[in-house]
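A student in our group prepared the protein record below, which I am reviewing. Thanks in advance; the entry in question is below.
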Amino acid sequence: MKLHEYQSKQIFAKFGIPIPRGRVARVAGEAKQIAEELGGRVVVKSQVLVGGRGKAGGIRLAKSADEASQLTNQILNMKIKGLPVRLVLVEEAVNITKEIYLGIINDRHAHHPVLIASGSGGIDIEDVARMSPERIIRIDIDPMLGLMDYQIRELMIGIDLPREHWREFLTICRALWMVFRDNDATLAEINPLVISGDGRLTALDGKMAIDDNALFRHPDLADKRDHDAEAPAETEARKYGLIYVKMDGEIGCMVNGAGLGMATNDVIKLHGGEPANFLDIGGGASSERVAAAMRIILSDPNVRVVLINIFGGITRCDEVARGLLAAMEEVKPQVPMVVRLVGTNADEGMELLKNAEMVTATTLMDAARKAVAVVREEANEYPN
């Protein structure tokens, strides 16, 4: 789950990372009042969970409170990459002498967190990483030991940070590691961390992403989810405890288990097809949950066939079958269904589906082949 800039900065401040003074505003009048409190010269920043806000005109400098009000009106009427701007962050303007990139991510290849820094921070950091990778410094963090001071010193030398800023930078790095660790983050990023005209280090922008699987430990963070930034189907799936990720293909998928879901999508790709989603109904799924899953899959207009692949262990195949029949009665799908049921009560489940005009398969390979064939219009009938 991604957090907005203002939400990330609120967490940063709790851990002692310096941020500019400011507050969020939802209407122009609020922005004007905040700007007056801050002395008039402020930055008005759209709060949407996409990159490129500045280049899209969603971050503007105001030289007076009246101008802050006008800019807020303009920004609140914008959409940035399809997302509406519902609030802005109004912050004091900071004179910048140097921009630094500083972030911690979970590196899936290295299987541990990595601290990343560059002396060339700012909006073009991706270009720096692509064209001058030697200017990006990476430090591996042992999660058992945490971030060590000697590693931070290596980083400061690597980005050529002036020595007079070492003590403050060291403190910020320690704090960022605690932000990352204590909030079960997958990303904690400051870009840019600036050296201001008065020689202080300040987190001018902030970004965080929280591990969805750890949100039960952070109910305060779970309440901060921005539903504008996710597909409506993903929001609906969460209500039923389903794991759904929309993709760009034409073959809808329903499985029970993340590993089986990934294997199903891989086999679809092997046969030349493209999955439309990842959807895991989990173990012990009820017929109501299965029906909800089917509604969610069929809400995608790109879906031309649905492949249901269930390995019955905790999940009973007859319960899945009842859910499918309930969903078909309610949704009345206009696309073919390819079903593979194996395991607990599989025979009972297949018996329930016998008159449901579904294509059945005995193996995953067979199911994927038949689903891909529908998309390719290579066959009109599929033997059961």
Remarks:
- The domain at 96-222 is CATH 3.30.470.20 (D-amino Acid Aminotransferase; Chain A, domain 1).
- The chain has 13 helices and 19 strands.
